[in-house]
Amino acid sequence: MSGAWTIYRRELAGLFFSPLAWVLLCIALAFNGFFFVLSVKGFGGDVLQSMSFLLGGSYTFWMLVVLLPPLLTMRMFSEEARTGVLEFLLTAPVSDFAVVLGKLLAATTLLAVLWSSAFLYGLALAALGTPPDWAPLVSGVCGATLVSALFCSVGLAISALCNTPLLAAFFATIANAAILSLPFVDALLALPPGSPLRVALGHANVITQFQASFVVGALDTKHVLFFVVWTGFFSFVATRVLEARRWW
Q: Residue 155 in contact with residue 65, Cβ under 8 Å?
């Protein structure tokens, strides 16, 4: 896996030296900080509710999770394909999976830095005399990182299919929103209770899988595996698309 480590360091350095990554971080941090202050006031100073709101219990969190990964991954394959760099990368002595894994870990690391800012809020609250419950905070950050990895893998698969970064970002955002909307399909189709399709759609509910474990401070391996397996699936798709590009 030395090739994946090399790709990871290259991509992570590229992200942190990219103005786009810093702009996205600043906007997301300001966005999170603003709504965290509003949530503290809205919940009457309830720290636990405010932290849950920040990490998975609000539409603002899911909006960021849907939008940020495509913006980070949109250039990782499409831009390289457009400029011809991808051809050199595909002929390098590194497997396609290592390339996908390195890029996925780099994008996920940047988003993990964003979600880790919640620890600063916890420390600030502790300094003011109202320390948070650290278990839900830690599990919430871990869960947010896993969700980000899932949507980053979707973004990489779409980026590998496109030659234009903006198109990659657009289609990846649509795909992420569609994944979040899967559980609501049964309501549109009026599926009967207990039908196999309805059960399958219920198990594919990303929001429920997240909130059932990470928001309450419990790292259930069942829910961790849910995100790991789906991230692995879309990473596999990205790898296969990358292999197919050799014949384009």
A: no
Q: Are 31 and 64 in contact (CB under 8 A)?
A: yes
Helix (H) or strand (E) holding 31: helix 19-42
Helix (H, G, I), strand (E, B) or coil at 154: helix
Question: Is the model more confident about 143 or about 90?
Answer: 143
Helix, strand, coil proportions of the chain in percent (round to 5)? 80, 0, 20
pTM, 2 dp:
0.89
What spatial distance separates the first Cα and last Cα of the chain, rounded to whole Å?
27
In sequence order, what are the residues at sequence separation of 6 or more whose Cβ sits closer than 8 angstroms to the Cβ of residue 224? 146, 213
Summarize pLDDT for 98-134 with one digit per residue, the tens: 889 999 999 999 999 989 888 888 888 788 777 777 8
Domain spans of the chain, in order of start: 2-247
Choose among 181, 227, 175: nearest CA to 201.
181
Write the DSSP string, 113-151: HHHTTHHHHHHHHHHTT----HHHHHHHHHHHHHHHHHH
Q: Which of 141, 154, 77 is nearest to 111 (CA)?
A: 141
